[in-house]
Design goal:
- It is built from 2 helices and 10 strands, in the order βαβαββββββββ.
- It is mostly beta strands.
- The strands form 3 sheets. A 5-stranded antiparallel sheet has the order 1-8-7-2-3. Strands 4-5-10 form a 3-stranded antiparallel sheet, with no helix packed on it. The chain has a two-stranded antiparallel sheet with strand order 6-9.
């Protein structure tokens, strides 16, 4: 189950109150891994994506990265392998994920926990298998 960030909740309530909705996500959606809960306020958790990838950028998810379901359960499930890194450059333990509207900085949109924490050691391939990232709105 995904939790909306306060940023996204505010955007939705503004929209329901007659304001314009969020701008189009023209630069994409970006995935980040965390060592603890990043919280709705974006005040918790430590982002570990940069530690394990050696890059300052989050992972850009391609357009239509998942299969969307409707009819009472709004859900997106990744349809392809998501490679975070082919060889980790650092060590960390991943326990949570978040989606952002920017590769660096930006606004967190959603966050959730992994089914189980994953220790990552230098050299590890870090991937999310098809069906492994499920975003559910209920």
């Amino acid at each position: 189950m995904a939790a909306m960030s306060n940023y996204l909740e505010d955007a939705l309530t503004n929209w329901l109150n007659g304001s314009a909705f969020l701008p189009t996500l023209s630069s994409g959606i970006y995935l980040a891994l965390f060592s603890s809960d990043p919280t709705e306020l974006s005040s918790g958790g430590t982002e570990i994506t940069t530690i394990i990838t050696g890059s300052s950028s989050r992972v850009n998810l391609p357009s239509n990265w998942g299969t969307r379901t409707t009819g009472g359960i709004g859900q997106i499930i990744n349809t392809n392998l998501i490679t975070i890194t082919s060889a980790a450059t650092g060590e960390a333990v991943a326990s949570h994920w978040a989606l952002f509207n920017s590769a660096v900085g930006g606004d967190k949109l959603l966050q959730g926990s992994l089914v189980e924490s994953k220790p990552i050691t230098t050299g590890d391939r870090v991937e999310i298998i098809p069906g492994g990232l499920v975003v559910t709105f209920n």
